[in-house]
């Protein structure tokens, strides 16, 4: 970006960009170990909602099939995405 000041403000405000790899998997941070469980839940919900809202109109069927959360080098734990996807639609 050419507007560094704006980019710094957005990051400090909590803006997170997510990218999708070629297999359709989204990798994005939702928090840190020091965050409360409620904050992590809120962040995960916001991320899944943003992914569902970014769904292309031509995409058919169930858009978010599963979600797993893990630390950088830890094992993954499956999340129930149903409450998040219903709220997002």
TrEMBL record:
Keywords: Repressor, Ribonucleoprotein, Ribosomal protein, Translation regulation. GO terms for biological process: regulation of translation. The keyword Cytoplasm does not apply. The keyword Transmembrane helix does not apply. It comes from the Bacteria. GO terms for cellular component: ribonucleoprotein complex; ribosome. Belongs to the universal ribosomal protein uL1 family. This is Large ribosomal subunit protein uL1.
